[in-house]
């Protein structure tokens, strides 16, 4: 069992930055995928970014603006979000795949125009 706790969401103006943090309750292998999804009102949950064994993957809509990273010693994954746009407004969820999928509770990100 893995519990995930996200933090770092909030309200920011367009063009601003936020950094999301997700801490897992136990140690994970570097090969375990960690990632961030988001869900905007009325839309399906979508992949934002994922990282495993140093390899990263990004949604086209965030490439060049968002950076995912992890600290295995702290069981933590981060999402640095720069040049935020109103369309980035969503609830952001942390995900871990360690043989089964675990989700965090979500953190709200609101970008005002």
Please tell me about this protein's structure.
This protein is mostly beta strands and 113 residues long. 0% of the residues lie in helices and 55% in strands. It has no helices and 11 strands. It has strands at residues 4-7, 10-13, 18-24, 33-39, 46-52, 55-58, 66-71, 76-81, 90-97, 101-103, 107-112. The strands form 2 sheets. Strands 2, 4, 5, 6, 9, 10 and 11 form a 7-stranded mixed sheet that branches. A 4-stranded antiparallel sheet has the order 1-3-8-7, with no helix packed on it. A hairpin with a 2-residue loop joins strand 5 (46-52) and strand 6 (55-58). It is globular, with a radius of gyration of 13 Å.
Write the layout of secondary structure elements.
Blueprint: E1 4-7, E2 10-13, E3 18-24, E4 33-39, E5 46-52, E6 55-58, E7 66-71, E8 76-81, E9 90-97, E10 101-103, E11 107-112
Parallel strand pairs: 2-11
Antiparallel strand pairs: 1-3, 3-8, 4-5, 4-9, 5-6, 7-8, 9-10, 9-11
In short:
The protein has no helices and 11 strands. By secondary structure, the protein is an all-beta fold. The strands form 2 sheets. Strands 2, 4, 5, 6, 9, 10 and 11 form a 7-stranded mixed β-sheet that branches. Strands 1-3-8-7 form a 4-stranded antiparallel β-sheet, with no helix packed on it.
Which value, in Å, is the CA radius of gyration?
13 Å
Number of strands: 11
Reported for the largest beta sheet, the result is: 7 strands, mixed
State the helix count.
Answer: 0
Query: Could you say which overall geometry the principal axes of the C-alpha atoms support?
Result: globular
User: Which residues form runs of ≥5 with pLDDT under 50?
Assistant: none
The protein's oligomeric status is: single chain
Question: What structural class should be given to the helix and strand makeup?
Answer: mainly beta
Strand residue percentage? over 45%
The level of helicity is under 10%
Instruction: Give the integer mean of the pLDDT values.
Output: 95
Task: List SSEs in N-to-C order.
Answer: EEEEEEEEEEE
In whole angstroms, how far apart are the ends?
A: 40 Å
